[in-house]
Write a structure and sequence with these properties.
Blueprint: E1 2-3, E2 9-13, E3 18-27, E4 33-40, H1 45-56, E5 65-69, H2 75-82, E6 88-92, H3 107-118, H4 121-124, H5 131-152
Parallel strand pairs: 5-6
Antiparallel strand pairs: 1-2, 2-3, 3-4
């Protein structure tokens, strides 16, 4: 684990070529944030998925079906989730024959939520020193989006 000049924990994921931190979110079908875990980028996606799903298990005991991208595939995740309860994980993979950009079913919901969060200036870059502060600002950005949507309705 490395630290930045400001003292915050950071890492590097060579597979995704991401330096800093990664956000793992669970979004419902409307794109609303259900769960959020943030950690250094050097932690694997499958490990982050277990943490975020464990964090929401008590709040949403009826939740059973999860759509995930190919980064979460594998027996390691399925075995870890079996200990948490009854889950069905459907991995959404990109076709091997696809060229260029392709909209993946259900995957775009999470990407849209990330885009909504990215519109917050404070989240555009990783300015925060601590993971807790970065998590708090992510939640603030989501609450701001929700209040704006409620005001329009």
């Amino acid at each position: 684990m490395k630290t930045t000049e400001s003292g915050g924990p950071h890492g590097y994921d060579a597979g995704k070529k991401v330096k800093g931190r990664k956000r793992h979110i669970v979004a419902d079908t409307a794109g609303l944030l259900v769960g959020l875990i943030m950690h250094i980028a050097s932690i694997q996606d499958r490990d982050g998925a277990v943490a975020v799903l464990a964090s929401i298990r008590r709040l949403y005991p009826w939740l059973q079906h999860i759509f995930a991208d190919a980064g979460y595939a594998g027996d390691k995740l399925r075995n870890a989730l079996a200990a948490l309860g009854r889950w069905t994980v459907q991995i959404i993979k990109r076709s091997d024959t696809a060229q260029g950009f392709e909209v993946l079913p259900r995957r775009w919901v999470v990407e849209r939520t990330f885009a909504w969060l990215g519109r917050c200036r404070r989240l555009a870059k990783d300015f925060e020193t601590t993971i807790e502060s970065s998590t708090a600002w992510t939640l603030v950005a989501h609450v701001r989006r929700l209040t704006r949507a409620l005001a329009r309705a």
